[in-house]
TrEMBL record:
Biological classification of the source: Bacteria, Bacillati, Actinomycetota, Actinomycetes, Pseudonocardiales
TM region(s), chain numbering: none
Protein name in the entry: Right handed beta helix region
Cross-referenced InterPro entries: Beta_helix, PbH1, Pectin_lyas_fold, Pectin_lyase_fold/virulence, SCF-Subunits/Alg-Epimerases
Pfam families membership: Beta_helix
Residue ranges constituting the Right handed beta helix domain according to the UniProt record: 83-257
C-alpha cells in the first residue's frame, strides 16, 4: 500500500492512545503521529494501514502500557518480552518515519505479514532484535537504521519466498547487521553495516521444532561493510549473540547457501576482538554437517575485500562449485582463488 493511495487520515498527538486509533481505523487509513514521544507498544492487526511518524528521532515509541498480542513468541527471546511494534497476520501495512526505542523484545516484529513496508524506521536499544520479519512475503525495508540489539539488526527469518528488498539502511552494534536466516528471494543492496560482530550473515541452519529452511536466490550488492569488530556468542545470558557460536570480525558470511550473488561490495577493516568460528571478512562454507546444506552455484564478482584480519576471504567449501570474477583481495585461505586479484 502506498500512502498516496489512501483517502482516510487520522492525526494522533502525544498523549493520545495510538493503539485505540489503530483498533478503530478502517482499511486504507493513514495514522499520522505528530512529533513527540508515545508510551506503550503497538499491535497492528488491520490490513492496509499506514502508521506514519514525523521522522526518525522526532516521533518516538517507548515502553509503557502493554497492548496484548496473539503473535507467536519471538525467536531466541524469553516468553514475556514486549516488542515495540507488532504486525501480525495482515497485508498492506506500512510503518514509516519513527523511532522505536528500549523494548525488551524487538523494535518491530512482523509475523505472517504480506506486502509490508518499513521506511525510515529506526530501532535503537531494543534488547533482542531490531527489525525482525518472520514467515512473511513481499517485504521492503528502506532507509532504516538498527542499533544495539542482541541478535540481528535487520532480519528475515523463515521467509521461504520473501520477495524482499533491504536497501539504503544502516545497521550497527548488533551481533549481525543484516541476517538472512533460512529465507530466500531477497535483495540486500546499498546498505551500510559497521560495528557489528558480522555485517551480513546468510545462514541455512536447521533448528529443533522450526520450519524447514534454506537460503537461495539472494543478491548482496553495493554494500559498505566495514569495521565489524564486536565479539558475539557465549553462554552468559544477555551477551551479544547469546548461545550462538563465537563470532567476531566478519563482513559477509554465506553458510549453506545456493544461487547467491555477492556483487560490488566494499568490505574493509573487519577484524576480530574475540574468538570466532570464522576467520575472514568474506566466508563461504557448508552447513551440511549440522542440518543445512552445501554451498553451491554462488557468484562473487567485483567485490573489493581488503584490509581485513586475519584473512580477507576464507573458503570452507569447494571453489569449483562457485564463480569468482574480478574481486580485489589482499589475503585468502586458500592462498590463491581463481577470479581474485591479489
Amino acid at each position: 500500500m502506498s500512502v498516496t493511495e489512501v483517502t482516510t487520515e487520522v492525526r494522533v498527538q502525544p498523549g493520545d492512545s495510538v493503539q485505540e486509533a489503530l483498533d478503530a481505523c478502517a482499511p486504507g487509513a493513514v495514522l499520522r503521529l505528530a512529533e513527540g514521544t508515545y508510551e506503550g507498544n503497538l499491535v497492528i492487526g488491520r490490513p492496509d494501514v499506514a502508521l506514519v511518524g514525523a521522522g526518525a528521532g522526532r516521533t518516538v515509541i517507548v515502553p509503557g502500557p502493554v497492548a496484548p498480542s496473539a503473535v507467536p513468541a519471538l525467536h531466541d527471546a524469553p516468553a514475556d518480552v514486549i516488542s515495540g511494534i507488532t504486525v501480525h497476520d495482515v497485508s498492506g501495512v506500512t510503518v514509516e518515519g519513527l523511532t522505536v526505542r528500549g523494548f525488551s523484545g524487538a523494535g518491530v516484529y512482523a509475523h505472517t505479514a504480506t506486502d509490508l513496508r518499513l521506511v525510515d524506521v529506526e530501532s535503537v536499544g531494543n534488547a533482542v532484535w531490531g527489525l525482525y520479519v518472520r514467515e512473511s512475503s513481499v517485504v521492503e525495508v528502506l532507509r532504516c537504521r538498527a542499533e544495539g540489539s542482541q541478535y540481528g539488526g535487520i532480519a528475515l527469518a523463515f521467509c521461504s519466498a520473501a520477495d524482499a528488498l533491504i536497501a539504503d539502511s544502516e545497521s550497527t552494534a548488533n551481533a549481525f547487521g543484516v541476517f538472512i536466516d533460512n529465507s530466500s528471494r531477497a535483495r540486500v543492496v546499498r546498505n551500510r553495516c559497521h560495528g557489528n560482530a558480522a555485517g551480513v550473515l546468510l545462514l541455512h541452519q536447521t533448528y529443533e521444532g522450526e520450519l524447514p529452511g534454506g537460503v537461495t536466490d539472494v543478491l548482496v550488492a553495493d554494500n559498505d561493510i566495514t569495521a565489524n569488530t564486536l565479539a558475539s556468542g557465549g553462554d552468559e545470558p544477555g551477551v551479544l549473540g547469546f548461545a550462538g557460536p563465537p563470532m567476531s570480525g566478519v563482513g559477509i558470511a554465506a553458510i549453506g547457501v545456493q544461487r547467491v550473488a555477492v556483487v560490488g561490495n566494499r568490505v574493509h577493516g573487519n577484524e576480530p576482538t574475540g574468538p570466532s568460528v570464522m576467520g575472514a571478512a568474506l566466508v563461504l562454507a557448508s552447513s551440511a554437517d549440522w542440518g543445512g546444506s552445501d554451498s553451491v552455484d554462488n557468484s562473487f564478482e567485483w567485490n573489493t575485500i581488503t584490509g581485513n584480519s586475519p584473512f580477507d576471504v576464507q573458503l570452507g567449501t569447494d571453489p569449483g562449485n562457485q564463480r569468482f570474477r574480478n574481486n580485489a583481495v589482499g589475503a585468502s585461505q586458500p592462498e590463491r582463488i581463481d577470479g581474485c586479484e591479489y
